[in-house]
Amino acid sequence: MKGKLIIFSGFSGTGKGTIMNELLKRYPEEFCLSVSATTRSPREGEKEGVAYFFKTRDEFEEMISKGEFLEYAEYVGNYYGTPRSYVEERLNEGKNVFLEIEMQGAMKVKAKMPEAALVFILPPSIKILAERLSGRGTNTEEDIRQRMNQASREAEGMTRYDYFVINDDLEKCITDVRNLAQGNIPDDLPDESFLKNIKDELDSMLKGDL
Ligand code: ADP
Ligand code: 5GP
Questions:
Q1: Alpha carbons 69 and 63: distance in angstroms, whole number
Q2: Cα-to-centroid distance, 61 and ligand 2 (Å)
Q3: Which of 79, 147, 164, 189 has the fewest CB atoms lying closer than 10 Å?
Q4: Using a 6 Å cutoff on CB, does residue 75 contact ligand 2?
Q5: For residue 17, which of 35, 2, 1, 3 has the smallest C-alpha distance?
Q6: Helix (H, G, I), strand (E, B) or coil at 30
Q7: Cβ(135) to ligand 1 under 6 A?
Q8: Gap from CA of 65 to ligand 1 centroid (Å)
Q9: Which of 100, 95, 96, 146 is nearest to 120 (CA)?
Q10: Does residue 210 carry a pLDDT above 70?
């Protein structure tokens, strides 16, 4: 049986990496994570082939021209892309594959593979998102501002996702995501008013009101 492709998106700093790491550590037989290629520089502690395959722009563009990506996109001035062969091989082995990618890429994959589940991870509030971004200590003020602007653009498209999960209590979030991957939809996922609230908070934050 083929595995399930789960596309995992959310504003930068929401906790996607943290959630994924826990799921992979706890349930290595159930999940695997596609490692993307990127042209951005490694953050402290990020290892080649684990966090990303770090490439120069020339190397990345060569991979594009050879058709090696399932999808790729530009985000905050850098390329990010999903190597095709790894994903196809793991799905054929029956594994559930997570793609932790931003929205443009997510939509490209969904168009090619409509059976994929689009999952959007939300922060409990935009204030908490800002705290997580600065708490991570690996982004400059300018980078954080750019990521908030990007979040505001992504908020416009998030309604195209199939499922929304709030990363407030990490354990609950991990359980919710695992349930979704198994086809069990939790009955307390956030509703439209929560999404609207997040959008409004982002607008206020960018206007300097929050
Ligand atoms: P992303 O991969 O979405 O950019 P990260 O996984 O790097 O986000 O998380 C951003 C920061 O938020 C990290 O410092 C992480 O430890 C912290 N974090 C993640 N989930 C939670 C949570 N549920 N509660 C508090 N802090 C969290
Ligand atoms: P970061 O620089 O914080 O690691 O990632 C920035 C954004 O790029 C995040 O939203 C992340 O999900 C996204 N991203 C990571 N890998 C890929 C990829 O292979 N393709 C696309 N389209 N986006 C990716």
A1: 7
A2: 17
A3: 189
A4: yes
A5: 35
A6: coil
A7: yes
A8: 34
A9: 100
A10: no
